[in-house]
Amino acid sequence: MYANDKDFRGIFEKSSQHGHGLFHLEGGFLFKRLWLYIVKSGFRVLLIQELYGGALVSHFGIEKTCSMIKEHYYAPKISGDVEHLVKPCSTCQFAKSHVLHQGLCSPLPIRLAPWEDVSLDLITSLSRT
């Protein structure tokens, strides 16, 4: 698939004969220094899905998923692909709050007469630390 990739077709051809700048071929795979180059294909989608919602990690969001991919792989414009797959995630839409904080807490009004307000603290058996 490297030979048909529109972004790195020329670099792949030059790297197949000998190393080309930061790129080199090893075992039929194209590397940029230590990072494996991922062609824009279905494998890229599977890789993003596994790093985003796979068994070892779970729904960390766009930026954390991008940083995990960039640790081991090289793919141009991967941030856009990650955003495209992560934004509509129903698990994140359901579980994570997207509401902004409402501001500073304001004090309760001071009552002038006894028994105007009655409050009860139901918190019990908290740990010491």
Give an overview of the whole structure.
The protein is of the alpha+beta class. The protein has 2 domains: 1-37, no CATH class; 41-96. Helix content is 36%, strand content 10%. It has helices spanning 9-17, 42-53, 62-72, 78-86, 90-95, and strands at 23-26, 29-32, 35-37, 73-74. Strands 1-2-3-4 form a 4-stranded mixed beta sheet. The longest helix has 12 residues, at 42-53. It starts with 8 loop residues before the first helix and ends in a 34-residue tail after the last helix. The mean pLDDT is 77.
Q: Assess the beta-strand content as a share of residues.
A: 5-15%
Order of adjacent strands in the largest pleated sheet: 1-2-3-4
Work out the helix count. 5
Structure summary, number of beta strands: 4
N-end to C-end Cα span? 56 Å
| Backbone structural class | alpha+beta
Which ranges are low-confidence, i.e. pLDDT below 50, for 5 or more consecutive residues?
none
Q: Tell me the number of structural domains.
A: 2
Mean pLDDT: 77
Biggest beta-sheet profile: 4 strands, mixed
Shape type: rod-shaped
**Which percent bin holds the helix content?**
25-40%
Q: Helix and strand string, N-terminal first?
A: HEEEHHEHH
Q: What value does the Rg take, in angstroms?
A: 26 Å
Looking at this protein, list some descriptive labels.
four-stranded mixed beta sheet, 129 residues, alpha+beta, rod-shaped, 5 helices
Helices and strands, with pairings:
Elements: H1 9-17, E1 23-26, E2 29-32, E3 35-37, H2 42-53, H3 62-72, E4 73-74, H4 78-86, H5 90-95
Parallel strand pairs: 3-4
Antiparallel strand pairs: 1-2, 2-3
